[in-house]
Amino acid sequence: MTIIFHKVHGSGNTFYLHEEIPNMFYNWPLTAQKMCNPSNENGADGLLIISQSTKADAKMRVYNADGSEASMCGNGLRCVARFVLTKLGVTVATIETMKAVLSVQQVEPIFKSIDTYKVEISPVSFKLTSLPMKHKNHKQIVNEVMPEFSLDIHFTAVSVPNPHLIGIVPIHYIEDTQFQEQLATSFNIDNEHFPDGVNVSFVHPVDESSIFVRTFERGVGFTNACGTAMTASALVSATINLVPYGEITVYNPGGFVKCEIEKNENHVHLSLIGNATFFATYSGELTEDGEFIINSVILHEHEINEYKELELQAQKNVNDGWSSNEYL
Ligand SMILES: N[C@@H](CCC[C@H](N)C(=O)O)C(=O)O
After folding, report:
1. How would residue 39 be classed by pLDDT, with cut points 50, 70 and 90?
2. Where in the sequence is the active site (predicted)?
């Protein structure tokens, strides 16, 4: 039977996206491992599966490249939003995710005519039990130096609702990724603090309302961007007065997004705004052991090229911000 996968990305965070055919059962964890394999030049960071929902306009499931299922994916949700909104012919909808029904909408292009979507990121919790994270002295960790992790990084642990450890770092930790990789790897194997692993992001300001975020993702490794991590990093940056609340530009190795952090007395509302770009549409056959045999490909070249311009602009803005020296 012929099935279709779209290769998509949000900020260079790449996925295969498939709309499930009712009553057709495939082994999605195995398919994610096979199709997303990083040693395969056509690999991806994850697999997004869209299906029918009884609570919302559609349901999204996300599998990391290692086959593990995650509770949420911000960049992926924008791509799912584009697919669902286009199919329904509407500009606003709701998508069921593992832990919440989230609102999604099409908004003004973030750059030139790039298709742009705004998605809700929720629920948020700073309780260590929500990640889960275990620590003998803490019930939450907000902007704390954790000497057992590092002596010069302030860490925050937050779930949105997937687990994130965010470090506000001096710039040398952005330029040389070795320490981040070592720390994140240690938290994503058998370890005393993160029984389910964690996404680890390092953050450095670019200017008074922008930050740069690099993420080592649980189940994947370094990615160009992680939507939930960027939103969590924007929240942390506003909480500690690194940038004001409101709209924060978040640069990443794959481009940039905007995060809206709205706070009133005891509630925060988080939104992630950015591209949803479709590289290609593949049709083919999926074998029982998760191999996808491609029969035909349609490349969406205009989208690919327009996104390259956004990437160049993002790199320039980051270089300009950092070469002003103020944020080094
Ligand atoms: N890239 C995603 C997050 C995907 C899941 C993550 N690796 C996890 O295991 O929690 C995003 O854009 O949020």
Report:
1. confident
2. 73, 226
Domain ranges in the chain? 3-120+275-311, 128-273
* Ligand 1 center from residue 217 Cα (angstroms): 6
Range list of H helices, 188-300:
227-239
pLDDT tens for residues 83-124?
999 999 999 999 999 999 999 999 999 999 999 999 999 999
Ligand 1 in reach of 271 Cβ (< 6 A): no
CATH of 128-273, one of 3.40.1440.60, 3.10.310.10, 3.90.650.10, 3.40.50.2300: 3.10.310.10
Could you tell me if the CB of 65 is within 6 A of ligand 1? no
pTM of the model: 0.97
Scored b (16 or more CB within 10 A) or e, 51-79 reads eebeebbbbbbbbbbbbbbbbbbbbbbbb
Instruction: Decide: 224 in ligand 1 pocket, CB within 6 A.
Output: no
